[in-house]
Amino acid sequence: MSEEKDLWLREVALYALLRVALGLNICLHGVVRWAAGLRNFAEFLLPMFQRTPLPAWSVYSFGCVLPIVEALVGFCVLFGFQTKRALMSGFVLMLVLTFVSTLRQDWPTVGIQLMYSPVYSLLLAGTPVNYYSIDSRF
Length: 138
Hints:
This protein is mainly α. It is built from five helices and no strands. It has helices at residues 3-36, 38-45, 56-79, 83-103, 107-125. The protein is elongated and about 60 Å long.
């Protein structure tokens, strides 16, 4: 096997592993919260946002929608379906989560959320090597 092909296979494999890791993480965030009950998760968020300018109805609504969005985005990233759209959606979701976490002045959570940005960026930049995916089959 040529050195060039070997390098390409490593890039393809590493991209797939990173994509699967991120997809699994985000998908299970949503699935676990969804399985526990959307209302339960939404009600869990309400006290956390009492001292922010966000109205309670918006926090509750977001809490009902967030697990579904996480599960869908994570599923798409996990299996490489509509990968670019899923990664962009996940990046925007992280921006929203970072925004609401800064309203709460929850700096440790903001730091954790910030760590997702380079992963999303790397995966978006690497979509040309997204070979092991549903997208590459169509």
